[in-house]
Design a protein that fits this description.
The chain has 302 residues and is of the alpha/beta class. Helix content is 45%, strand content 9%. It has two domains: 2-172 and 257-298, Rossmann fold, CATH 3.40.50.1010; 176-250, DNA polymerase, domain 1, CATH 1.10.150.20.
């Protein structure tokens, strides 16, 4: 069996920007994100044939514990009141999409104080089946193991990359388990992560490949120059305060309190009446049918 974990926000934001707002319900409301999310989910289920499926939610898109450690974390993506910037045409589609998923019988999971990345990492870590993590966030590469594969969608579903430990090693020159350490050193503007001044991707990869974790890199920098690229030791020591805090913000959590989920692909809608009403209200019949057909194929029925 295979468990497929989907970063819901990543998928519905991608759908919203990929499809025009002229895709509307019969009453004129935009449903481009809803239809796109359902169509992409159907494509993933059809192509990968998982047995189980969960949409993972950002109930806290910028958790306090991460901001306390790295104040710049996602700060450039926050509105003046600190909330996430969500386009006005997308915002009302999100609760409607969740209603559609619930009616279909496709579960969602989230926890206050945590991002979808943490939810996916926790579900992957506590499972025993093969797991596929669908994400456009490179930080999730850290969860790749012989049992867990990351379906990286940073370039879209058409160019989706299946990333296991060997693929991460080949692409970045580091062990997947140390991807967060690499990101801390190199920095990541998309997350407001400054990195270490003067340490680029090549040097970051060399340090992580040789020493491993940020904690081990700091210890090695204190011990002497052996194994460090020229001048890197001084840069690492100068960034000690940042390096002592950032790993706790960048590393995904695997201790999110989550209930046991009924996550097997459903043989039939959980609430057929509600699903019919939503299909009629939103005009999403074709997209819902695609999801149902993909589920039927994945379950090996027909």
């Amino acid at each position: 069996m295979t468990l497929q974990l989907v970063d819901a926000a990543n998928l519905y934001f991608r759908a919203f920007y990929a499809l025009p707002e002229s895709i509307t319900a019969p009453d004129g409301r935009p449903v481009n994100a809803i239809r796109g999310f359902l169509d992409m989910s159907a494509a993933l289920i059809e192509r990968r044939r998982p047995s189980r499926w969960v949409a993972c939610l950002d109930l806290s898109w910028r958790p306090d514990f991460r901001v306390e450690l790295v104040p710049s974390y996602k700060a450039h993506r926050a509105s003046p009141d600190g909330s996430e910037v969500i386009p006005a045409a997308l915002l009302p589609q999100i609760p409607l999409l969740l209603k559609v998923l619930a009616a279909l019988g496709l579960p969602t999971a989230g926890a206050d104080g945590f991002e979808a990345d943490d939810v996916m990492a926790t579900l992957a870590a506590r499972d025993t089946d093969e797991v596929e993590v669908v994400s456009g966030d490179r930080d999730m590469l850290a969860v790749a193991t012989d049992r867990v594969r990351v379906l990286y969608t940073g370039k879209g579903l058409a160019k989706m990359e299946v990333m296991g430990p060997a693929e991460v090693q080949a692409k970045y020159g580091i062990a997947a388990a140390h991807y967060a350490d690499f990101a801390v050193l190199r920095g990541d503007p998309s997350d407001g992560l400054p990195g270490v001044a003067g340490v680029g991707e090549k040097t970051a990869a060399a340090l992580v490949a040789r020493f491993g974790s940020i904690e081990d890199i700091l210890a090695a920098a204190d011990s002497g120059p052996d194994g460090f690229p020229a001048g890197a030791g001084a840069k690492i020591r100068a960034a000690r305060e940042y390096l002592s805090r950032a790993p706790g913000a960048v590393r995904v959590r695997t201790d999110v309190p989550l209930p046991v989920l009924a996550d097997e692909l459903p043989a039939e809608p959980r609430d057929a009446g509600s699903l019919d009403r939503l299909v009629g209200e939103l005009g999403i019949g074709a997209s819902v049918a695609r999801v149902q057909a993909a589920i039927t194929a994945a379950r090996g029925v027909g």
